Queue: 3 jobs
Job 1
Amino acid sequence: MKKASILYPFAGIAIGSVLGYLYYHFIGCSSGTCPITSNPVNSTLYGAVMGGLLISSLVRK
């Protein structure tokens, strides 16, 4: 396994975290009834998980 292939999922996690927070900040749910987008921590963690999974599924092994 190459060093570069190990870094891709971490990059996906970082990018997903930023995008998750930006989604909360600009689009998020103001009423508090949305389980993911009503809280910045939940939105950031969800974005990190989705970013990591997406990038790791696209990387060739």
Note: The chain has two helices and no strands.
Job 2
Amino acid sequence: MLLKAIIIILFIAVLISLSSALVFLMKDVGNPRKRTLYALGLRVILATALVGTIAWGIYSGQLTSKAPWDRQLHPERLAPHQTATQS
């Protein structure tokens, strides 16, 4: 549950950083300040942390897929009573 909360917080932080970069881009037209560059750099760092967190969750088994097509690709993940009814 903590991993999912961290993922949501990182995703919201990426959106905030992206929107602040847009605001800085619109306000700083012709101004030599580098606020847009710094905001986009922060977005790249946050996005890398987000992808790393998702990869860690999948690797550690805390994040799993519940998609219907994933049952066909990985039948060993099904519970024993589900495999008997599908055959």
Note: The longest helix spans residues 2-27.
Job 3
Amino acid sequence: MSAVPNASPHDDILRLHVTAKDPEALRALLRENRPDVGGRPHVEADGRIGIDVYTTADRIPDLEREGVTITRTGNASEAGRAAQAEVGGGDRFAPDDAVPRGLAAKLTD
């Protein structure tokens, strides 16, 4: 089950790496578009400034401009759906399952 009901791949949140020629260009881009960011800006090996951004595919054209490079690095929605599929469906705290199970030593009083 998806956390976003009736979501299509077009609505997926994409992870992008945005690099700009200088801090002012990156600041202007972030101020104008207000995308969700992951972490803080950092200086790339070539001296440009970069940051991870999370947005939908239809908003990518708003981010494109001279002096800015956008690289798609992943699909955050797809990664979330994969993680949700790993979660069990049972209630591990149900009364009939009150005794913990696992590899740890079970201590008695």
Note: The mean pLDDT is 84.
